[in-house]
Amino acid sequence: MLASAAMATPGILMAKGRALPRRLGPNERVNLACIGIGNRGGEIIRDLYKTGLCNIVALCDVDMGAPHTEKILKQFPDVPRFQDFRQMFDKMGNQIDAVSVGVPDFSHFPITMMAIGLGKHVYVEKPMARTFNEVELMMKAAAKHPEVVTQMGNQGHSDANYFQFKAWVDAGIIKDVTAITAHMNSPRRWHGWDPNIKAFPPAEQIPSTLDWDIWQMATKGHSYNKDFVNGQWRCWYDFGMGALGDWGAHILDTAHQFLDLGLPAEVNPVKLSGHNNFFYPMSSTLSFKFPKRGNMPPVEVMWYDGVDNLPPIPKGYGVSGLDPNIPPPSTGAIEPAKLNPGKIIYGKDLTFKGGSHGSTLSIIPEEKAKEMASRLPEVPKSPSNHFANFLKACKGEEQTRSPFAIAGPLSQVFCLGVLAQWTNTRLVFDRDKKIITNNKKANELLVGPPPRKGWEQYYKV
């Protein structure tokens, strides 16, 4: 039985007054609790710890002791361990300043909501949450508790691409953008699965290390299967957000922020190869239409994923668009290579190409880039990487560059894209009312099914 602090709803915690974060002195480290310690979660912990700005005070994972958790457990052998984040907060809440959340997409929401309600700073992996409504509630909670620092883990927001994009927009180099092509054409985990699926995979024996009940969090009940866990969750509509949720924030984040895109007015699934009701298509082409914003013209963002679904490449794109690391086949024949993940941005006078994460843009064709070289503004260097930015913000020394107010609408764009994939339907979206106006089922999916009993409490702000 959990004690009262863990059972209290975030809504109640917020209604009773602010649970204020601890004030940290200049030489103090942030006391960090880490929720999700294997795979990507483990990488986040190592990067946060490497800054020298935090102490690791608690480790929490529903599969504690499984092989993928061993590296972090060996690095921090004396740190208290938990399988249930609620028990961790209950027993150690007064020793925790901040949390890292490196768990599956559908699990971000309850952990984050409880942390904010308890006045704990939150670093959460992208995308913020699996459903549009969960992201909306997370933004509202963060707005209600402005003293709580939030950061979404799209690391490019603290690298060269962020500062270059901002400088080029401010200087008028990037302007009058009307179209963006975003592409992620690498193989995905579900490629090769049978798209004629009629049911979820059969139940298998639950590993002895795994608390399957807590793993499911608020989602409707599923029987354990190895194809639901350890990254496989990303394949399923019920758990993850496919290639778009995985890579969208690393490719479109700066364009979304600095072109003030907000939410789309329409999302159209132009192509879905191997569509079914359970896991993501083998390839997808999605059109997102954003209306005019102030003096900026309407923008259409085209998203391409799937190994056989390369986007059109403009003249003068250059050979760097092809992945230089793919070796030629043993036959010696040169096959068409996949594009590296990235984007092409079409302005009125200039076209730009760029990669993902923190990689910078270049003007194409090369002749135009040379002509523009002397007119490009100086780009400031990043004062901190994404992890140090979060921890310094917890200490009051910086502002996070990807707080929920900025990361939330970006995540909601991907939530809408996923609904277009899932329903295989063009969606018309009212940006003011935040509802889908032409498809009742899709509009209901903005919220999704009711949470499992015992998890309703997190859906109150």
How is the topology of this model organized?
Blueprint: H1 4-7, H2 10-15, E1 30-35, H3 40-50, E2 54-60, H4 70-75, E3 81-82, H5 85-92, E4 98-101, H6 108-117, E5 121-124, H7 132-144, E6 150-152, H8 160-170, E7 179-184, H9 212-216, H10 242-258, E8 266-273, E9 283-290, E10 299-305, E11 342-346, E12 351-354, E13 362-364, H11 366-372, H12 386-394, H13 404-423, E14 427-430, E15 435-436, H14 440-445
Parallel strand pairs: 1-2, 1-4, 2-3, 4-5, 5-6, 7-10
Antiparallel strand pairs: 7-11, 8-9, 8-14, 9-10, 11-12, 12-13, 14-15
What does this structure look like?
The chain is of the alpha/beta class and about 450 residues long. It has a domain at about 5-155 and about 390-405: Rossmann fold (3-Layer(aba) Sandwich). It contains 14 helices and 15 strands. It has helices at about 5, 10-15, 40-50, 70-75, 85-90, 110-115, 130-145, 160-170, 210-215, 240-260, 365-370, 385-395, 405-425, 440-445; strands at about 30-35, 55-60, 80, 100, 120-125, 150, 180-185, 265-275, 285-290, 300-305, 340-345, 350-355, 360-365, 425-430, 435. It has a nine-stranded mixed sheet with strand order 13-12-11-7-10-9-8-14-15. The protein has a six-stranded parallel sheet with strand order 3-2-1-4-5-6, with helices on both faces. α6 (about 110-115) packs parallel to α7 and α7 packs antiparallel against α13. It is globular and about 60 Å long.
